[in-house]
């Protein structure tokens, strides 16, 4: 998860997503259409959102100025990621379907002993698709999506972090059904930094725990679902209090051979390939690479044709090369082999062991 991705959070409304006509895709089982989720969305909210493409939900919570700031900071975007854009991870998709998607589709079933999980944690090495999955869930369910990093919740003034956290959940309720996605949630538990930083994060965490505890109550009384999805590359840094509330813990591993093939194919959807490109061979050579590493390989390989074409040419000559000519240059097997050679895997075997150990102790299946 890059710093840029962390900062670029987003909130997008259910009706906005649904107005694009997305339908729920099947995730290894029978699923209904996103339209069903609409039944749970306040119709006035939907109307407004469809009219101007932006959600105009009335916010009656505390500290409206902080809520406005939060809403502005976490940009108004449609995640626009489909299930099919996420390669592999069928087990993770299945668990997300049961823990997040179905409770949003049929809240009346998920009552009492079947109450939804308070929070769902996705953990695993960086670049394996955790953020992508969160966006796919929100897009395909047609819910509001609030994508926030812990740094957006850290206020400058005494007490501001707690107020921001409270506002986040109040905003989420106003826009419900909502998925709140908190990236790098482990950073809340960090004990590093100055004494004041530590104190701020301790208070922020306490408020977050209170808000997570309150999620169930609001779900059962108003029928409006707010679901917490969190992600981390350092599950071991999450302390017990927070871990207990993140009741479902889904391991997002590195892609295996089949998933690497799928991932490469997804990446090359719109790219011209030369005869002789052997995706199986690329997948074989990239054991230990993350989804992000593989995407980088495909990008790098796809630039090679252009590099060959312009090599040694002055800029004036390059300007005259037709765009269509450039687009037609196919990516060759040599381009892939060169890229694999150049780009090294970013995840170490120590990282994998650390995740697998945590999974065997605390993970859900
Ligand atoms: P994480 O949140 O686990 O660090 P991201 O979801 O941000 O990783 O993934 C980073 C990028 O890597 C994505 O934008 C995508 O290009 C690629 N990627 C990673 N995993 C997958 C996957 N399973 N399917 C498709 N693309 C993936």
List the helices and strands and how they pair.
Elements: H1 3-7, E1 11-12, H2 14-19, H3 35-38, H4 43-52, H5 64-73, H6 90-105, E2 119-123, H7 130-141, E3 144-149, H8 150-153, H9 160-174, E4 178-183, H10 195-222, E5 226-232, H11 240-245, E6 248-251, H12 257-267, H13 279-285, H14 291-310, H15 315-319, H16 323-327, H17 333-342, H18 349-362
Helix pairs in contact: 5-9, 9-10, 12-13, 12-14, 14-17
Catalytic activity: n ATP + n H2O + a microtubule = n ADP + n phosphate + (n+1) alpha/beta tubulin heterodimers
Family: Belongs to the AAA ATPase family. Katanin p60 subunit A1 subfamily.
Keywords: ATP-binding, Cytoplasm, Cytoskeleton, Isomerase, Microtubule, Nucleotide-binding
Could you characterize the architecture of this molecule?
The protein is globular and about 65 Å long. Strands 1-3-4-5-2-6 form a 6-stranded mixed sheet, with helices on both faces. It has 365 residues and is of the alpha/beta class. Helix 5 crosses helix 9 and helix 9 packs parallel to helix 10 (195-222). 52% of the residues lie in helices and 8% in strands. The two termini are 24 Å apart. One of its GO terms (molecular function) is microtubule severing ATPase activity. This is Katanin p60 ATPase-containing subunit A1. One of its GO terms (cellular component) is microtubule. Its EC number is 5.6.1.1. It catalyses: n ATP + n H2O + a microtubule = n ADP + n phosphate + (n+1) alpha/beta tubulin heterodimers.
